[in-house]
Amino acid sequence: MANIGKRTQQIRDGIDRNKLYALSEAVTMVKDRAKAKFDETVEVAMNLGVDPRHADQMVRGVVNLPNGTGRSVRVAVFARGDKAEEAKAAGADIVGAEDLVDIVQGGTIDFDRCIATPDMMPLVGRLGKVLGPRGMMPNPKVGTVTPDVAAAVKASKGGAVEFRVEKAGIVHAGVGKASFDAKALEENIRALADAVNKAKPSGAKGTYVKRVAVSSTMGPGVKIDPSSLSVEA
After folding, report:
1. Tens digits of per-residue pLDDT, 141-200?
2. From CA 178, how far away is CA 198, in angstroms rounded?
């Protein structure tokens, strides 16, 4: 245990918990401290001035990270006929209709992202209790209910990340891997911040972006000065 404590202290050394760092400095600090034996995911947490219990203060959307996420994403598509063939050609990992619904209802969810054609939604709607809590329910607002399944599959494979504000008013999202170069991570973080900013709901009052922090899977959080992200405070 002493070794773990010492390692944690070493990782935290040099980080001022009360300071707001410029984006480039924060990213460098996180990368320098990602010492795990695996390629750590870099995550951003944004505290927003919203109360998602009110419908007019819900924040959700999708962002295409310019440099991808660094992880392979398994995509399932609910479609029939030509649309099913389009999804397979675009690289979908699992494609089906009633058969796929049965598999998911049986508790097997061997995918990270779920897409459906509009005509399949009455069928997919039965899976709300299974997919909803996992944040996987297809939704037209984030482009996962669409007739253009090929484009949706390619976007999911290429770095499309969904975000949704949690009860405490926080948006969490993975923006890449610690092995990414600093510029790629900075570009991805700016893209996320821009998308969250554009998703500002009509009911948001006062300061919208209150706090932003970046961290790696095993590392400490580093606070970012929101003004270095060019987002609306």
Report:
1. 888 999 999 999 998 888 888 899 998 999 999 999 999 999 999 999 999 999 999 999
2. 27
Statement: residue 38 has pLDDT above 70: yes
Residue 135 confidence (pLDDT): 85
Q: Is the pTM of this model over 0.85?
A: no
Distance CA 174, CA 176 (A): 6
Which long-range contacts (C-beta less than 8 Å, at least 24 apart) are formed by 197-200? 197/231, 197/232, 198/61, 199/59, 199/60, 199/61, 199/163, 200/59, 200/232
| Mean pLDDT of the chain, nearest integer | 90
How many angstroms separate the Cα of 43 from the Cα of each of 151, 173, 180, 212, 217? Answer: 26, 6, 13, 11, 7
Q: Decide: 82 and 205 in contact? Cβ < 8 Å.
A: no
User: Which helix (H) or strand (E) covers residue 60, if one does?
Assistant: strand 60-64
Q: Contact at 8 Å (CB) between 69 and 210?
A: no
